[in-house]
Amino acid sequence: GPMTVGDLARLLRREASEVIKKLMSLGTMATINQEIDVDTISLVSEEFGAKVKVKEVIDESAFEELEEEDTPEELKERPPVVTIMGHVDHGKTTLLDRIRETKVTAGEAGGITQHIGAYQVEANDKKITFLDTPGHAAFTTMRARGAEVTDITILVVAADDGVKPQTVEAINHAKAAEVPIIVAVNKMDKPEANPDRVKQQLTEHELIPEDWGGETIFVPVSAVTGDGIDELLEMILLVAEVQEYKANPDKRARGVVIEAELDKGRGAVARLLVQNGTLNVGDALVAGSFFGKVRAMINDRGQRVKSADPSTPVEVLGLSDVPEAGDPFMVFTDEKKARDIAEKRIEKKRQKELGASSRVTLDDLYKQIQEGDMKDLNVIIKADVQGSAEALRGSFEKIDVEGVRVHIVHSGVGAITESDVTLASASNAIIVGFNVRPEPQARVTAEQENVDIRLHRVIYDAIEEIESAMKGMLDPEY
Ligand code: GDP
């Protein structure tokens, strides 16, 4: 929630009276329980020599509060939303193209397909929505911005190449998001294809095939010949049936921005995925912090449409500015209300920050543990060699302080990448680097996203740091 003078004093490790005095010297009279805004917090913190990072997060819950609840009778089945992930060159793009070609144009000879960030196909008279940007980077960037878009992940593994580092990353990203995984064993047309090896390797990551007594669906496919694509789509529908994805099409729409750009001729163009309700031409909406009125909508076949129901991607013209991928959007009954909300959200976006959406840092870990709002400390490990990564994982997992456990979201070998930072941001994790450094872009993103990166050269030091942070013995870093 909002931050009070007392909260700030605790964070700064100062007496409340000192903070109040400082506020007075800045011309503000305040009491210990008074709420203070972000600008004041930054100002006071700087006076005490502490740097405050303001994180620009738009919390989707702000919209959820405004949304009417759906009764069970109002909820209707909606198409599943699918993301394709996997190692580079294992065939993600080819698979996406193949599915689109074979299914979108069926019965619609020469149907123009348009890139709008996602597309829908039909199989067995049911629809499936695919997000068009393959890979876990896009997936987790959305999550880091608070958007849970994907229902099902297709993990593509090339049968001739097997499990690779980015395969493991993709698994961990999907697991962190608690999204079901279907494995597509691709390139089955190749003579050197070895699907059993893929199965064997994936069991090490707790993806056990059904025919080996596990629960993970494996589908052999070839994105090039098209073999197995129908089975893959059937399996997606099967998972969707079990999970019962539902939404209420009979109300104003809410969803998420998949992409947006400024188009010279058309102005702000936003590609949206409707998650609940139905979006109509003429609707007044807020996307991110921008107001807009839907002037026109274009579907994934390049056709103008008047409405878009749940799980449908559409391109929307008429926003006042370009929102960001992952921003939530919502329709409001009247234009004035939408404008007001857009303004409030800009304000709120600035004010929310330091409270609920602040990241875990080791420095305030103890406080959070004391307040009982953390049971797992999420950690991402990057090390120079596999042996060190394993050793750290083993040691971290053994630490048990006041009922708090370390949960390893991801561990891998190599430099700390931007993808690691995004995953940390989305999972509220800290990153421990052992004999590795962050890549330049990872450093920049970590700074922006307020992700705590700890670098070590001695395993014992890394363990001790985590342990003492959990015990609240870490010296503040001011
Ligand atoms: P991405 O990096 O995962 O998106 O992989 P691409 O879709 O770009 O595919 C990488 C390469 O593998 C390309 O040369 C594709 O033509 C090839 N490829 C993809 N799927 C298959 C397949 O099923 N069989 C064969 N033989 N080649 C494939």
Automatic annotation (TrEMBL):
Keywords: Cytoplasm, GTP-binding, Initiation factor, Nucleotide-binding, Protein biosynthesis. Residues 80-228 are annotated as: G-domain. Transmembrane segments: none annotated. Its main location: cytoplasm. GO terms for molecular function: GTP binding; GTPase activity; translation initiation factor activity. Residues 77-244 form the Tr-type G domain. The keyword Nucleotide-binding applies. One of its GO terms (cellular component) is cytosol. GTP binds at residues 86-93, 132-136, 186-189. It is found in: Cytoplasm. Belongs to the TRAFAC class translation factor GTPase superfamily. Classic translation factor GTPase family. IF-2 subfamily. One of the essential components for the initiation of protein synthesis. Protects formylmethionyl-tRNA from spontaneous hydrolysis and promotes its binding to the 30S ribosomal subunits. Also involved in the hydrolysis of GTP during the formation of the 70S ribosomal complex. This is Translation initiation factor IF-2. It comes from Melghirimyces algeriensis. The chain holds residues 154 to 631 of 728 of the full protein.
